[in-house]
Amino acid sequence: MTPPVAALNCADLSVAEVAKMIDHSLLRPELTPRQVTEGCDLAARYQVASVCVKPADVALAAERLAGSGVLVGTVVGFPHGSSTTAVKVAEAQAAIADGAAELDMVLNIGRLRGGADAAVADDIAAVVGVAPGTVIKVIFENAYLTDEEKIRACRLTEEAGAHYVKTSTGFAPSGATLADVRLMRANVSPKVKVKAAGGVRTLDVLFEMAEAGAVRFGATTTADMLDDLAGRRTP
User: For the whole model, what pTM was predicted?
Assistant: First the structure.
């Protein structure tokens, strides 16, 4: 039996430490190139872990953030997970060539719900296999899944060699919940991490999710949360 992951004490975290837990999300379909560059500048200013941009914006973000210390991530099979494995592999390869260091891929939701576990695992493993050195986060889209399906998704993700399990795309009827974060943390080994996304809009929610086991967060309200923390840490 694998040992549990120690609970995070958010009271001890600095602004810089919390910033490095955030993937600043720039995934809304209506964002213009100028808005993407502005988002990248914000990410660099706050020194977050990464930006998560649309595939078409990876090269732009990589150029803007070169030398900043902020990674560029993008999405694969987004937001429904229903692309063929060959298309997901091609997306992953193109994104890496354009400068992506992290990939958030949506698993095949319908195949998971239908019990086709081998197909789900093979889909994930194919992306992992063409992305050595790239962090792979697998999005479950928990709004559509039962707890039993979420647990199976955790097992399949780990077996396929991915690095994170992730709650949501942010484009489904609901996003991250504390119950889901706890469930996912309990059903992967310590080497697999948990990312919460969808609805993490305040510092207090981020802290609750962190204490439940998440270590990375997809967020659009990055500045508000980190400014809030800076105010709380000011003597």
Answer: 0.95
